[in-house]
UniProtKB/TrEMBL annotation:
GO terms for biological process: peptide transport; transmembrane transport. This is Peptide/nickel transport system ATP-binding protein. It comes from the Bacteria. Residues 272-299 are annotated as: Disordered. It comes from Actinopolymorpha singaporensis.
């Protein structure tokens, strides 16, 4: 797995469980999940709908308090107390930002781009006047590839494409200079070509700003593209079934569920697809004697 900073992980989920009560009884949406993410690292959390990945993301961002387990940021438990320390929790919420799946629903339809981006800057005292606010908003828009910035500042969400709206959502996440961005299926509602452009922009931000990413997706191809240098955790029915360096897990999946996800990824070349299936079948046969299962790190 990616090396952790010498001071320890930036964000740690330690044996997190989330139970929801329904008319049919209790549902374990997240079941004993442990994850660690270092400074500037990228982690992909992968699984089908209902696997628990989005619930895990909301817990990691502080939007949801877990039923059991500990969320640590820079080594400090930020959700464990009934009344968390306000200043500590405020620092955490500023340092960890969330990008939602639907950019139209997550943006205020009656607020233009300038107002959307300048509001958090003013609220947190990061700008002193309107001139500074416009300058910073212009920088943010340029960072996410919306240029010239002056063209986009007066626009409302309905006046932009889905890809442009999602870039505004990313710019809003950047306003508070976060250390970690949690992107929850942030590309799933976009066309493939637009997805690639957005992922390229996120990769550039990670390189230039040193911000870390927790990337939530159901698509192993997207996970491989964006998270090749980091780790991947595969979730199924609330549990992590496979966890490790992204390229190793995707290149040689040990769990049957991971293998099924990989086989569901479309392959443009039919001959290559057949060769890959044959190679995986041969690998399964070679491991039939019982290779050790891959899983989450020990608590």
């Amino acid at each position: 797995m990616a090396d952790e900073a010498t001071s320890g992980p930036l964000l740690e989920l330690d044996r997190i469980t989330q139970v929801f009560s329904t008319r049919r009884g209790e549902v374990r949406a997240v079941d004993d999940v442990t994850l660690r993410l270092g400074v500037g690292e990228v982690m992909c959390l992968v699984g089908q709908s209902g696997s628990g990945k989005s619930t895990t993301a909301k817990i990691a961002s502080g939007l949801l308090r877990p039923s059991e387990g500990v969320v640590r940021f820079e080594g400090e438990d930020i959700l464990g107390q009934r009344r968390p320390d306000k200043s500590r929790f405020k620092r955490f919420r500023r340092a960890v930002q969330y990008v939602h799946q639907d950019p139209y629903a997550s943006l205020n339809p009656i607020q233009d781009v300038y107002s959307t981006l300048s509001a958090p800057l003013r609220r947190h005292g990061l700008v002193k006047n309107r001139s500074q606010a416009r300058e910073r908003v212009a920088e943010l828009l340029a960072q996410v590839g919306l240029t010239p910035p002056e063209t986009f500042m007066p626009k409302f969400p309905h006046q932009m494409s889905g890809g442009q709206r999602q870039r505004v959502a990313v710019a809003r996440a950047l306003t508070l200079e976060p250390r970690l961005i949690i992107a929850d299926e942030a590309t799933s509602m976009l066309d493939v070509s637009i997805r690639i452009g957005l992922l390229g922009m996120l990769t550039k931000l990670r390189t230039e700003l040193g911000v870390g990413f927790m990337f939530i997706t159901h698509d192993l191809a997207m996970a491989k593209y964006f998270g090749a240098e980091g780790d991947i955790a595969v979730m199924h029915e609330g549990k992590i079934v496979e966890y490790g360096p992204t390229l190793r897990v995707i290149g040689d999946p040990q769990d049957a569920y991971t293998q099924a996800l990989l086989e569901a990824v479309p392959e443009a070349d039919p001959d290559l697809a057949r060769r890959k299936r044959a190679a995986r079948t041969a690998a399964k046969a070679a491991n039939a004697d019982g290779a050790p299962a891959s899983g989450a790190p020990a608590a």
